[in-house]
């Protein structure tokens, strides 16, 4: 349980999340993930990183139960900073990052895959931001990198999800495969990337990031300011309490 790193092929590092039951990461998990990604990217022998997950789904966002159980805003602030660091670690990784997505990819999961260089998805993968239903805001920055602007807004306001096939039609998912073949397909793409000159790959990643029209780190932190405002205004706790009650049988 936690974040693991392995070397399944020459030049490739596999970073995997495993936080049962649904990969809703606690504060420490976001920082562990950021550290693992930065360590993998700093290794000069690595030319591509695959970000994957074990269990029922890719990522269900932050651990809301941890936030609601904590006194004050300590856990909320920790989660916000941890998410920002993990998302940035994907984007700022010196080599390309391929996300291998299965099951649900929600909330913080969108922040991760939206900052990845390529996405391979299982047929059962669904992508969305249930933030408004959880008393939060954020990651519209990253959803906007996956779907057209008006679809992003509709998905955000309704908290509905999009399928892997829908994202494939929009061009943000490289390939959709049966779940059993997801890891193999992601490693196949990573291997093709890793076959290139490592020094040139690092220059290419820096160049492509440099021409992005949006500063994703600053844009996401701007969004998070509204999450703090919602909390200070008393808008968030009720939604999070209701979510915890529904998922603990107390509602």
Structure description:
The chain has 251 residues and is α/β, with parallel strands linked by helices. Helix content is 49%, strand content 17%. The chain is built from eleven helices and nine strands. The chain has a six-stranded mixed beta sheet, with helices on both faces. Strands 5-7-8 form a three-stranded mixed beta sheet. Helix 1 (27-42) runs parallel beside helix 3 and helix 3 (74-91) runs antiparallel to helix 10. It starts with a strand and ends with a helix.
Task: Summarize, please.
It holds the Pfam family ECH_1. Helix content is 49%, strand content 17%.
List the helices and strands and how they pair.
Layout (H helix, E strand, L loop, with lengths): L1 E8 L2 E7 L8 H16 L5 E6 L10 H6 L4 H18 L5 E5 L2 E3 L1 H7 L3 E5 L3 E3 L11 H4 L5 H10 L2 E3 H6 L5 E3 L4 H13 L3 H13 L5 H17 L4 H12 L3
Parallel strand pairs: 2-3, 3-4, 4-6, 5-7, 6-9
Antiparallel strand pairs: 1-2, 7-8
């Amino acid at each position: 349980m936690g974040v693991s790193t392995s070397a399944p092929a020459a030049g490739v590092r596999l970073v995997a999340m495993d936080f049962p039951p649904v990969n809703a990461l606690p504060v420490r998990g976001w920082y562990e993930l950021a550290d693992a990604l930065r360590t993998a990217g700093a290794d000069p022998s690595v030319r591509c990183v695959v970000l994957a997950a074990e269990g029922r789904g890719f990522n269900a966002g932050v651990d809301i139960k941890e936030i609601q159980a904590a006194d004050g805003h300590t856990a909320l602030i920790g989660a916000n900073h941890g998410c920002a660091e993990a998302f940035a670690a994907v984007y700022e990784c010196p080599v390309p990052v391929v996300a291998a997505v299965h099951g649900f990819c929600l909330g913080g999961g969108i922040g991760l895959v939206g900052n990845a260089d390529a996405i391979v998805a299982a047929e059962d993968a669904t992508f969305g931001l249930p933030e408004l239903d959880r008393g939060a805001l954020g990651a519209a920055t990253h959803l906007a990198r996956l779907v057209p602007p008006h679809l992003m807004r509709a998905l955000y306001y309704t908290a509905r999800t999009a399928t892997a096939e829908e994202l494939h039609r929009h061009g943000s998912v490289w390939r959709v495969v049966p779940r059993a073949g997801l890891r193999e397909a992601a490693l196949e793409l990573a291997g093709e990337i890793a076959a290139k000159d490592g020094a040139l790959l690092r220059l290419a990643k820096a160049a492509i990031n440099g021409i992005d029209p949006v500063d994703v780190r600053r844009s996401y932190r701007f969004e998070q300011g509204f999450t703090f405002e919602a909390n200070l205004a008393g808008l968030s706790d009720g939604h999070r309490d209701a979510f915890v009650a529904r998922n603990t049988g107390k509602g």
